[in-house]
Each structure stands twice: as structure tokens, then as C-alpha cells.
Design a protein that fits this description.
By secondary structure, the chain is an alpha/beta fold. The chain has 15 helices and 13 strands.
């Protein structure tokens, strides 16, 4: 079987992590299949094929561009593919090669108010609907996203297959990576960690409000809050609340250093309004770090009983959960053990095996022809 994988998002956050873990798993489990990996020219220079049965082909078209609409179908025909896998619902509108697609979330359709132009939401809806209709099978990274695909987008239920996101091989095992200087400078003070971008649905002003409440409690005065990304978009909120060095921004954290930050944290805080899966809570659990998440979308599905789940959009319950995990070592230890156990369910092997099964079903004609 000759399978193409659109890897042009390989070094983007979220989808890029999914792709890298999937490729590593496929290389370990399937030495017989023949894979053609499409990469952007710049990415080709910094990514080595994960196995002898992977061939890299340059696809000089940016994601979401008009160029991809014609280039990818042409490359798929030229390479004689039996199947092509797009890791996102934004796929070429036309194409004769049988395809599968991964839908991570439907945030553009479900939260249109998060975007400046309403036309973005309409375009995203049209493309997602077309992809769900044309794909032989559709992979989703959670049951919640599969439900959204069927009941919010009107996708055919029979095409949906859940293949959960995964941790990379070895994550959370062995010696911890060296601490970043900004984390080491905390001098061992307990800190809560937020990992992710600063988009509006992530609810970061609410997180700042909850941390402000925590700092005013007797048991929370020594705590710190550490976030990935830059301070810029939260600076006015921090100044309004009189918060300075208690809140630390790490900027862009390399993957090699991220695990060390997780391991040093008291807990992950992740109050997002919407997630198709939520990789940071899984990454935290893989390090034995309890996550505190909102009761929104897929987050309870991922975390289960391995963390603390709080009402979405409410600052004080979030602050109270942070205070509990600071004060109660026994609870923290119990959740840490549960977190490691639950993280094992989301393995690279399960992702690769589930995806391979979808490839075989789709190549055999499941779901119908495009």
C-alpha cells in the first residue's frame, strides 16, 4: 500500500505534534507500507525520514493557500498513491486520490465570535463539510470532536473513527531535562504552569484573575505562575492587578526543554473554553503532574479522574483548585499517580495502530469513493 501523508504542518503547534508522534509510531510498527511524506521546502531541510520506507517529496505550497488546491492533487496523482492522509480538515476541494482526513476540532464553526471576520467561519464550515463528504474515513482525536462532526457539522456518523492524540515514545521517563534558566531562577518556589498559545478561547485573563485570588490567600502567597509565550498581550491585565515577577513568561519553549518545565510544576492549569483534545493536559499527566482543567468540550474526556475539573469561565473555583493542590500533599500525590496511569492509555502505539487500521479500511473502499 502506497500512502501519502501531508506533512506541511509538521513544525506547527498542535497538529505538528500529532504528525510527529504519528510518523514515529508508523515507522516503528509498519515496515511493509510505502510512505510518501509531503513537506514544505524549509521543513525538508530539518526533518529526516523516520524510516527506510518513507520518502520525502517537496510540496511548495503553504497550508490554507490557493496553491495547495491544485498542487497536492497533482502530486498525489504523480506519486501513484493508493491513499492520502490530510492531518486537518482544510483539504483540497477536488482530487481523485482516495483520502482520509483528521479533524482535530471545529472551533471556527462553534466559536465564530473568536474571529474578526465572520467569513472565516463560513469558509471553514464549507471546507470541513466538503472534507467530511469527500473523505473515505474521518479520524477525530476525541469522542467529543466526533460528536461535533456528526451533530454540529452534519458529517456521516459511519465515517468517524476516534484515534486519540498520543505522547511521544519515552515522554516522562528517565532523567528530567535541564531546567530553563527562568524556571531555575524561581529557586524551588511552587509554580503552576500553562502551556499553549494565547488565543482568546484559552481564557488566560481568567487564569490571571484566579492566580491573583490565590496570591491573596494565606496558603498561596509564595506560588508563582509560569506561562509559555510572551507577556505582551497580558501586560495590561497584570499591571491592573499589580502582578509582576510572580508571573513568568518563557517565550517559545523548545520541545526538548518542555518536559523539564512540566516535571518541575506543581500542576498544569488549563482553563480553555474549547479543545478538540487538549495536548498540554496529556503531556502533564505523562510527567505525573496533575492538570486543572475546565469542564469544557473534550477536556474531561482526556483527564478523567486524574486531575481537577472546574467550571468553565469561573475564576474563584480555579483559584480554589490551585490552592488545594498547593496545600494538600496527599491529594497531589494521589492525582500524580492517577495521571501517570491515565497517560499510558494515550500511547504512540495506540495512535499508530488505530491510524493504520483506518488506512487499510479506507484503501479497501470503506466509506465509499470520493
Amino acid at each position: 500500500m502506497r500512502i501519502g501523508i501531508d506533512g506541511r504542518m509538521l513544525f506547527m503547534s498542535g497538529i505538528g505534534t500529532y504528525l510527529r508522534n504519528l510518523l514515529a509510531g508508523l515507522a516503528r510498527l509498519d515496515a511493509a507500507g510505502e510512505y510518501v511524506l509531503f513537506l514544505r521546502p524549509a521543513d525538508r531541510e530539518r526533518f529526516a525520514a523516520p524510516g527506510a520506507n518513507f520518502r520525502i517529496v517537496t510540496a511548495d505550497a503553504e497550508p490554507y493557500s490557493l496553491a495547495e488546491q491544485t498542487l497536492l492533487p497533482r502530486l498525489a496523482r504523480r506519486e501513484g498513491l493508493d491513499l492520502i492522509h490530510h492531518p486537518h480538515y482544510f483539504t483540497p476541494w477536488f482530487g481523485r486520490t482516495p483520502m482520509v482526513a483528521t479533524v482535530h476540532d471545529l472551533i471556527h464553526q462553534l466559536l465564530p465570535e473568536m474571529f474578526r471576520l465572520r467569513a472565516v467561519s463560513w469558509l471553514a464550515w464549507a471546507v470541513a463539510w466538503r472534507t467530511a463528504s469527500r473523505a473515505r474515513l474521518v479520524l477525530t482525536v476525541s469522542e467529543h470532536t466526533r460528536h461535533d462532526l456528526v451533530f454540529r457539522l452534519g458529517g456521516p456518523a459511519a465515517k468517524g473513527r476516534v484515534t486519540y492524540n498520543a505522547l511521544p515514545p519515552g515522554w516522562g521517563e528517565g532523567p528530567a531535562p535541564p531546567l530553563l534558566p527562568a524556571v531555575e531562577a524561581l529557586g524551588g518556589a511552587p509554580f503552576f504552569f500553562y502551556a499553549g498559545n494565547h488565543k482568546r478561547h484559552k481564557n488566560l485573563p481568567l487564569l490571571i484573575e484566579a492566580f491573583d485570588w490565590l496570591r491573596r490567600q494565606e496558603g498561596g502567597r509564595g506560588a508563582r505562575l509560569v506561562l509559555t509565550g510572551a507577556r505582551d498581550d497580558l501586560d495590561s491585565e497584570l499591571r491592573r492587578r499589580g502582578l509582576g515577577g510572580e508571573v513568568v513568561f518563557l517565550g517559545e519553549v523548545p520541545n526538548a526543554a518542555l518536559e523539564g518545565v512540566y516535571r518541575a510544576a506543581r500542576a498544569l492549569v488549563f482553563p480553555s473554553r474549547y479543545e478538540g483534545f487538549g495536548l498540554p493536559p496529556l503531556e502533564a499527566m505523562g510527567c505525573g503532574v496533575p492538570p486543572i482543567v475546565s469542564d469544557a468540550a473534550s477536556l474531561p474526556e482526556v483527564v478523567g479522574e486524574a486531575g481537577v475539573i472546574v467550571p468553565v469561565g469561573k475564576a474563584q473555583p480555579l483559584g480554589e483548585a490551585m490552592l488545594r493542590l498547593l496545600a494538600d500533599d496527599r491529594l497531589h500525590g494521589e492525582l500524580s499517580a492517577r495521571a501517570r496511569e491515565r497517560a499510558r492509555r494515550f500511547s504512540w502505539r495506540a495512535l499508530a495502530e488505530g491510524t493504520l487500521q483506518v488506512y487499510r479500511e479506507a484503501a479497501a473502499g470503506a466509506g465509499g469513493r470520493p
